[in-house]
Structure prediction request, 204 residues.
Amino acid sequence: MKNKTILFLLCSVMLAGACSRRESAELPSDLAERATLTGREVSGAFMVTIKGRLLEAIEEGGPVAAIRVCHEDAGGITASAAQRAGVMDLRRTSMRLRNPENKPTGLDEIAWGHFNDPDSDARQEVEDWVTVDPDDDDRVVYYRALRTIRLCTTCHGSADQIPSEVRVALAEHYPDDRAVGFEEGDLRGLLRVDLARASLEESL
Ligand code: HEC
Prediction:
């Protein structure tokens, strides 16, 4: 009996500890809402621009020429979006990478689980998610799911969807390419926007 009481007390203390930690990492709802709106704006602009440039490049020079867009232009668009007030960083990542430089952090992996079940690839009905960077309280991180649409399968689809000249070019630039075999609707990657907490608070 006595042991049970001690165990109960011990559990309560541990749970209380866990709860307060969780609370400190959570965002107040007005701040979360502001971060979501800013994140949606920035990521929306990125997606519209990159899709437009991809289509344009494919039309003008074919899909091999468009490979450059997903590499160089993505960097350029990312840099210009990051100049917006409060945006500290903007990047793309995935659990199945083409460019190893885009490799996911621990937080990115947790985010992936909010959009897709990591064990089964089953889709979760969530398109964006905000959280605080556990390594830096001043950073609010916004994630947006990048789902595969038909346009993407030219370079990320199955072998019969990717034109042979594109396969050759990809093999040349990305020898460890794992970003193929995606079907329409699959989670291809995440767009991550890091926002300065102080700027968000100022704009409330
Ligand atoms: C013309 C070919 C092409 C098309 C079309 C294309 N991509 Fe890519 N994608 C690439 C290349 C090349 C890279 C590697 C970029 C780099 O070097 O950073 C890449 C990288 C990515 C990454 C970064 C993670 C990684 O694997 O390195 C994501 C996310 C991504 N693409 C999503 C998409 C989505 C979503 C679409 C459709 C809207 C799309 N791509 C259409 C060629 C393409």
In short: Confidence is low (pLDDT under 50) at residues 5-24. Residues 84 and 148 are 27 Å apart (CA to CA).
